[in-house]
Amino acid sequence: MATLFKSSDVYVNWDKDETMESHNLGSLPTLYGQDGRFIHSVNAWFFDLIATQKLKNLSSYSRALLLYWSFLEENSLCWDKIPPLKGLNLHIYLNIIY
Fold first, then answer.
1. Are the beta carbons of 42 and 31 closer than 8 angstroms?
2. Which of 14, 23, 79, 87 fits a disulfide with 83 by CB distance 3.0 to 4.6 angstroms?
3. Signed CA dihedral, 61, 56, 53, 12: sign only
4. In angstroms, rounded to a whole number, what is the distance separating the alpha carbons of residues 75 and 77?
């Protein structure tokens, strides 16, 4: 099962900022797969939501992606490939959750 952690504060330097002063984005949710690997695609999106879209709270996004990623891992699926319709019994999974 995937795991979600809160990172320590993340600091960035904006290119347009001539002072090269670090800006604190705060703590970010960080998703790791069941094998302990950093899930770059999800974590990059979390960073984008905070850094460019200025969202303050990612808790609903992070919980939803934790469930989704866990589902993908349990069913040996890749997030960027669509399985054949008959190959995935999504209704069984949805009945378990709801």
1. yes
2. 87
3. negative
4. 6
| pLDDT for 65 beyond 60 | yes
Residue 23 in this model has a pLDDT that exceeds 90: no
The answer to whether the beta carbons of residues 81 and 73 sit under 8 Å apart is no
Instruction: Spell out the domain ranges in the chain.
Output: 3-97
| Residue that has been written with the tokens 């809160």 in this structure | 6
Tell me how crowded residue 12 is: count the other CB atoms within 10 A of its CB: 13
Contact status, residue 68 vs residue 78, Cβ threshold 8 Å = no
Q: Is 60 exceeded by the pLDDT of residue 17? A: no
Which has the closest alpha carbon to 9: 23, 21, 22, 27?
Answer: 27
Contact 38, 3 (CB under 8 A): no
Q: Is the pTM of this model over 0.85?
A: no
Distance CA 39, CA 69 (A): 9
